[in-house]
Amino acid sequence: MPSSKFAIEDRNRYATGLNSYHESEAIAGALPKAQNLPQKHHLGLYPERISGSSFTAKRAVNKQTFMWRVLPSAAQSSWTQVPDHPLNQNFHTDLSFLPDQLSWKPFKIETDCNFIDGLRLIGGAGDATIKNGVAYYSFSCGVDMDEQTAFYSADGDWLIVPQIGALDIQTELGMLRVRPREICVVPRGIRFRVTLPSGQTRGYVIETFSGHFDVPELGIIGSLGLANLRDFEIPCAAFTDTDAVTTLLVKMAGKVSRASLKGSAFNAVAWHGTYYPFKYDLGKFMTMGSTLYDHQDPSIFTVLTCPSDKPDHPAVDFIYIGPRWLVMEDTLHVPYFHRNTMSEFAAVISGGFDTSPMPEELIGMCMLHNGMSTHGMSAPVIEHSMNKEIKPEKIPDDHVAVLVESCYPIGLTEWARKLGEPDVGGDEENDFGGYKRVFDASLALKGRMQ
Fold first, then answer.
1. What is the phi-psi region of residue 362: left when phi exceeds 0, alpha when psi lies from -120 to 50, beta otherwise?
2. Which listed residue, of 34, 230, 235, 392, carries a Cα 20 to 30 Å from 112's Cα?
3. Choosing from 22, 212, 272, 369, which is the catalytic residue?
């Protein structure tokens, strides 16, 4: 499947190629030639730079973009805190770290909320003030953000995963349309606004405090595979020319503040650089897998990763569990039982999770298995998989799920903890899920002696 089929068309223009240098102008000639800082721009634009890394970071990871704006971002008021915003959280006091395996039914869509007001923190870990940690949110909304409102996170990159409904994301560098089976990343500090071209929406946001999302290294896979760089799409310059005052919201250190901005937050007429938002169609993922026996690790399905301060332990591995062929011989095709040092947060986008179909009312559900907590398939699924005839089997095209692995244990908010339901086999009353004992020690020993 070279790409996904979408219910709504995307007519925006994009550049392609992640980690490349890009330049774009909404008016021909708006980009200065041969220098960034002419004494006076010939169109009367103001130069402004946004840095996603230190100036001296190695070239491969240096993230810098120059913009030329109708008015500079400095044309703003002072900030005031928004005391009762749902995004206000203190990770040190507001989260409960539990070994429970929990799942959540699809969250109710808040039809009277916009994208920002409809965000709810599920859980997280770490501390944004030292750029170390993650946060997982659900979002649901039914109305557009106000035309004169913009938001940005100073705490981290946002990976946005719609499950129902499309998002039009207006950013400082241009427009993105993001539909179910697509994802997008809005980097730390980039201002944006969300409208709803197809009505009500629901989905998830993964925020990482410790760095930037990037594709994983390919190693012995070679130069092609997984999420290919050419398939990432970057917006082209588009600007709003207005003198109306804009309300600007920021999340910094887990607290939301508000300021007023002269003109639009989206008044960049031209830009060039290496720091930008992007989107990706999961249907273009080039899947790798076992072709003879046993399972490969799910890390082989990693679309994007973000490092932590611990070598070889990512803050986030964002993994796509989608259509593919299972052709392994004499192999249990469903996922095996597992206890992982990484926490695992999963969500069903459509159809089902891996080989298992989902009832319609559970599509959109999510689940969390914290570090070293056991997870695996139910007893009926395991028994069926152990006894069925093994033959090539394709996971259906509509089975799309995502998995987020993190080196951090994930603490839950009170809201999430109260809504969560146990996602384990059961207890003594129902025989701990009904897993059957098949092993007979006496027969095994008798077989060894023979």
1. alpha
2. 235
3. 369
